[in-house]
Amino acid sequence: MELGRRRDLGSALGLAPAPAKPGQEPRPGAGAGAGAGAGAPGAVRARRFVLCLYLVGFLDLFGVSMVVPLLSLHVKSLGASPTVAGVVGSSYGILQLFSSAVVGHIWGHFHGGGDFAVSQTLAVPCFPQGCWSDVVGRRSSLLACILLSALGYLILGASTSVFLFALARVPVGIFKHTLSISRALLSDLVAEKERPLVIGRFNTASSVGFILGPMVGGYLTELDDGFYLTAFICFSVFILNAGLVWLFPWSEVKLNSTKHGLRLGKSHALLGKTDREVQEAATRRGTTVSGKPARLPWMEVVSTLRDMKSLIVSEMWDIFLVRLLMGVAVMLYYSNFVLALEERFGVRPKTTGYLISYSSALGALAGFTLGPILRLYKHNSHAVLLHSSVLTFTLLLLYSTAHTMGIVVFSSTLLSFSTAIGRTCITDLQLTVGGAQASGTLIGMGQSVTAVGRVIAPLLSGVAQEVSPCGPPSLGAALALVAIIVMSVSRPRCGGDGSDKLKSE
Predict the structure, then answer these.
(1) E strand or H helix at 83, and its extent?
(2) CA distance 39 to 61
(3) Hey, what's the signal peptide range on this chain (predicted)?
(4) Given CA atoms 330, 332, 334, 340 in this order, what sign does their dihedral have?
(5) What's the pLDDT tens digit per position in 366-403?
(6) I need a labelling partner for 70 at 20 to 30 A (CA). Which of 108, 259, 282, 480 fits?
(7) Which residues contact 372 (CB under 8 A, 6 or more apart)?
């Protein structure tokens, strides 16, 4: 029965239906002469649901990218010093790290520790006795995250003091997990082997939103009270997104669960039930799943930190250190990009928004160049990472000392390629060295290291800006140089015989 349901979903995604197993019980209405008529509506509903999720991802990053590049300008206009702005930015990163660490670990227990769940770091708000999205359902958790994030952007649009600015970042820092829950929904809707394709399309739709958002935000911010208008439009986009989620055909689409959790296909008690019925079943199951007692969030945090410590002190310490250093270096470059261009060259936010959108589009296209580059290097990820890091260091240094906008555009163009290639290669390298058995854990740990970088980078940026607008990218270049030294002295553990199948982040 599960196979029949997935066949409908596969048809909706353009996939060939799988043959039914011998002796399998036919689905109601799927008999002779009725199969086509019954399958078509299910396929249409599934396709409509998946396309709606793509739209959710697009609107989410479209709204966010309108506002985020302008935050440094706005907090400066409120009278905050760069250091205070850095502290506020770090508090947002801490909130994100906390919620991701707690829920990512809990998700691993409630969903059998599957690679997909861990690798996506499905950060969703949770109750002490389990994952919120399992207890109250995907619909309720997704709606709550969108609406509470919208509240944060509404407060941001009304912020006339540093206190209100910092207060506005709190609900966004805790509940801004729309993309993670959407990926979880997609994983429930499609067969396991089709997840990469569907998730890839979802990421592409989201990236398009991030390409368009800075252009719109840069244009709006030059109007009277432009930042407040931009924040209010962002709030409106989130409300529109919530309305879209509310109108989803939830009752018409059945959701899967994972291997050790609630499996609709093999549990006759849950077969054919909707998301609402599944969440009720999850609640009745109490605090244990797969025979393991659920633990409090604080215990999950401690367990996650212990896992992080064991990996960091392992033989892969240099890989995680390089990931942290390069991640912070790139974050420092972007931390005051809009503000620095205005102070150094008098560039208006509208023009800077166009430049950010241009760089984002190039970063998306950089993935197409990775295959030929890896073949040129004979799939030696270590060499590709080393050379891309050298290029990133050179470009950060060039941007820091640039005297014309032409050099800024040139460095931004090449940085889009070098950083995109570097992110993918560091992930491939850690998977190659760590082994396929722990791929989910390794990817999750890599994302945790990046989250730590999001906490550190705003603080370093604030201190560096006290010295000069060129301070953050200059400090980023110094960190990139340290990463290059670490890679140079470390013994390459991934050569030409490395993984031919690149695992993208």
Answers:
(1) helix 82-110
(2) 34
(3) none
(4) negative
(5) 878 888 898 899 888 899 999 999 999 999 999 999 99
(6) 480
(7) none
